[in-house]
Amino acid sequence: MQTPEHGLAGVPPLGSRVVVRHRLPVPDPRTGATLTDVVGDLVHADPRHLVVRTRRGVVEVASADVTALKEVPPAPARRGAPHLALSVDDLQRVMVGAWPATETEHLGDWLLRAAEGFTGRANSVMTAGDPGLPLDAALDRVRAWYTARGLPSAVTVAGPVGLDVTQDPLGALLLERGHLPRVPTRTLTAAVTAVCASTADATAGTEVQCSTALDDDWFAAFSAYREAPRRAAEGVLTGSPDQVFARVRDASGAVVAIGRLGVAAAWGGIGAMWVAPSARRRGLASAVLGTLAREAAGRGVRSLHLQTDTDNVPALATYGAHGFRPHHDYVTLRRA
Prior knowledge:
Keywords: Acyltransferase, Transferase. Residues 208-336 form the N-acetyltransferase domain. It comes from Phycicoccus duodecadis. This is Acetyltransferase (GNAT) family protein. The protein is α+β, with helices and mostly antiparallel strands and 336 residues long. It has helices spanning 88-96, 135-147, 169-176, 192-198, 200-204, 216-225, 230-237, 284-298, 313-321, and strands spanning 17-23, 35-45, 49-54, 57-62, 66-71, 103-107, 110-114, 154-159, 179-181, 185-191, 209-211, 242-249, 255-264, 267-275, 303-309, 325-335. Helix content is 25%, strand content 33%. The strands form three sheets. Strands 8, 9, 10, 11, 12, 13, 14, 15 and 16 form a nine-stranded mixed β-sheet that branches. A five-stranded antiparallel β-sheet has the order 4-3-2-1-5, with no helix packed on it. The longest helix has 15 residues, at 284-298. The model has no long low-confidence stretch (mean pLDDT 93).
C-alpha cells in the first residue's frame, strides 16, 4: 500500500469521502449520545486534526477524539443500482486507487500519474474536474511533467459510452496538439452479489488460490503475457489500500489463470485477468472472477469495476454474462 500524501497511516488520501466517528465534548442533551458521525470529503489531515468538507460546511475534528475512520464511496449522482449511480468523474476518481501509479501530482482536480511507463492507466492524466488553468496552459504543464520523467505526455478523456473525443473540448485540443488516441476503453461495473451468484457453478468446480501478497509464481504468469518491469509493476500491483491475487494451477502445478482485486474507495477493481491459451474455454476466468468477487464481499465491498478495450469482444461478453454493465468509456491520447 502506498503512503498517502499526508503521511498518516490508516488515514485515507485527501479528497476521499469518509465517515469520521468521534467523541462529543459533552453528551447530546436530547439523546444522551456521546459519539457522532461526520460524513464528507477529507480535505486536510495532520497528527492533531482531520478536516472534512460536508454539505453543511467544513468540520474540524481533533484526532484524539476520533474513534473510527472509514472511507466510503462517493455520493450517488443519480438513482438506480449503486454500481451505476456514480457520475463518470466520480468513478474515474474511485478507480485511481485500484490500479495506483507509483508517483502522482495534482494539477487542480486533475491527477498526473507515472509508474516508469508500466501500463497506460498508471502513466496518464486522470482529468476529472478542473485543472485550475486554461486547457492549453494545463497541457503545457502536463507535457513538462512527463518530459521530466522521460515519458510521453498521455491524457485520458472520459465520457458516455460511445464517446467521440473529437466532440470533447479537451479531446479536440489534444488531437490538435498532436496526441494520438488509442482504442477506447470501456468501464464496466457490477454488483458484487450479482457476480457471486452468476459464477457460483464455476467457483464450485475450480480451486482458486488467493493471497494478499504478490509472489513470484503469480508475477511470472503476469509478466509472461505482458511486459512488466519488476520494480514498477510491483509498485502498482501492491499499491492499493488492499489487494488480492488469485491463481489457478493445473495438475502439474503450473499457474494457468490469474486475476487481481484492488480495493479502494469502498469499491473493488478487477484487473490482470489472464488465462493460458491451453486452458481457455474451461470456465477458469469465471472461477477467478467469482473468487475475487467473494473476496470483495468479505471486505464489505458492494460494487466492482473493471476496464477492457471496446474491441475485446470475448472479454465484454464474459463480463456481461456475469452482471457487468457499461458505465462509461474513456480514451487515452498520447503525444506521438
